[in-house]
Amino acid sequence: MNRIELQKGIATRTLQMRDARGWTQKELAKRAGIKRDTLASLETRTCMPSLMTVIGLARVFGITIDYLVFGGGVDVD
Predict the structure, then answer these.
(1) CB–CB of 53/42 below 8 Å?
(2) Beta carbons within 8 Å of 3's beta carbon, 6+ residues apart
(3) Residue 16 contacts by C-beta under 8 Å, 6 or more apart in sequence?
């Protein structure tokens, strides 16, 4: 799995989970303790999120960091 695939997966899962909860970017950013601009960049895949951003998002969504980064059942070798 390369950087682009990781970035795409994080962006896709973040957007899907945010939409499923009916949250705006502003709402999710506040809950996760990040800037809305950071979240927008993550969702549009213009930046790779920091570890602290990933931790904040996983915590807010109630999921593991592994799931946010890799999704379900992915072989990372």
Answers:
(1) yes
(2) 48
(3) none
